[in-house]
Amino acid sequence: MPTFDKAAAETLLSAVFAPWVQDLVLSIETIGDDGAVLRMRFSDRLCRSNGVICGQSLMSLADTAMVFAICSAAGEYIGMTTVDQTIHFMRPAVKSDVLAEARVVRLGKTMAYGSVSLRTDGDERPVAMAQTAYALLRDAK
């Protein structure tokens, strides 16, 4: 089975994702057998006027982190598209890097399901939790 490691993830981040996702300046913290941790660096460009990071950027971080978790579980990049993402915002993320810990709950032949926990750097309390579903497009690389 092929291996999807941190080097493969970093290549994928710059090669596959839309330019506006790359503008989030995400970095791969860890890649494991069934999950990934990504960091979104703090930027005023991601905030409302009061320093609270906007929900749209948090949702994008969760969605992107889950792609890497699925690839890690599969051992390779698989084309996929988001079918569903439900996110619960629990508290504001204010003027801090945000970490997304994504875990695959089930990896099937045509669908994958996952869970993402978002937290600010240095604080274990979640700022948001997301449940996700993806259609796997195994023939679309």
UniProtKB/TrEMBL annotation:
Q: Name one GO molecular function term.
A: fatty acyl-CoA hydrolase activity
Upper classification of the source organism reads: Bacteria, Pseudomonadati, Pseudomonadota, Alphaproteobacteria, Hyphomicrobiales
Matching CDD domains: PaaI_thioesterase
Q: Which UniProt keywords apply?
A: Hydrolase
Tell me the NCBIfam families matching this sequence.
Answer: unchar_dom_1
This chain belongs to the protein called PaaI family thioesterase
What Pfam families does UniProt report for this protein, alphabetically? 4HBT (PF03061)
Where do the Thioesterase domain residues begin and end?
Answer: 51-125
Record-stated family: Belongs to the thioesterase PaaI family.
Is the keyword Hydrolase assigned to this protein? yes
Note the Gene3D superfamilies from the entry: Hotdog Thioesterase (3.10.129.10)
Source species of the chain? Candidatus Afipia apatlaquensis
Top-level taxon of origin:
Bacteria
Q: Which SUPFAM superfamilies match?
A: Thioesterase/thiol ester dehydrase-isomerase (SSF54637)
